[in-house]
């Protein structure tokens, strides 16, 4: 509900060190919070960072053709992809806390976090893709399916 969405939004806004030393737990919590948020609040109204506009515009400038609805792991992990992602990510060093720390990212945005539907990505990649999914309407399916069950 609204209280859960508000708590999740607050948790996403906190710096990673607010959660202690276990980085894997921190980012699992971030991803859980994001999924809780897009299940509870219309994703087009979500703001994941203070830099959403900058992250989104730079992401779409750099990755115009990237299919964010259903990610191909090669678009993140191939040698060619890494060469494209590196300068994109590095521009957020010092701007996005722990910008290059690892987190889980859903491959298919219409599905939940499962072992088969996740890939390890950097925090900036996660933010860029999830901000784009929110703004471009791809996370609407999760939100609408949760609303239909209510």
UniProtKB/TrEMBL annotation:
Pfam families tied to this protein: PBDC1
GO cellular component terms listed in the entry, alphabetical order: cytoplasm
Superkingdom: Eukaryota
Domain Polysaccharide biosynthesis: 34-143
InterPro entries linked: PBDC1-like_dom_sf (IPR023139), PBDC1_metazoa/fungi (IPR008476), Polysacc_synth_dom (IPR021148)
Name of this chain's protein: Polysaccharide biosynthesis domain containing 1
Organism: Lates calcarifer
């Amino acid at each position: 509900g609204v209280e859960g969405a508000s708590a999740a939004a607050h948790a996403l806004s906190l710096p990673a060190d607010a959660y202690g030393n276990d980085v894997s737990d921190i980012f699992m919590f971030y991803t859980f919070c994001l999924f809780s948020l897009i299940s509870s609040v219309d994703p087009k109204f979500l703001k994941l960072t203070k830099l959403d506009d900058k992250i989104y515009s730079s992401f779409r400038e750099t990755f115009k053709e990237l299919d964010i609805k259903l990610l191909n792991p090669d678009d993140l992990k191939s040698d060619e992809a890494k060469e494209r992602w590196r300068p994109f990510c590095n521009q957020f060093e010092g701007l996005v806390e722990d910008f290059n720390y690892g987190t889980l990212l859903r491959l298919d945005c219409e599905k939940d976090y499962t072992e088969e539907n996740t890939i390890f990505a950097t925090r900036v990649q996660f933010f860029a893709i999830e901000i784009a999914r929110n703004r471009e309407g791809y996370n609407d399916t999760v939100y609408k399916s949760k609303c239909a069950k209510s």
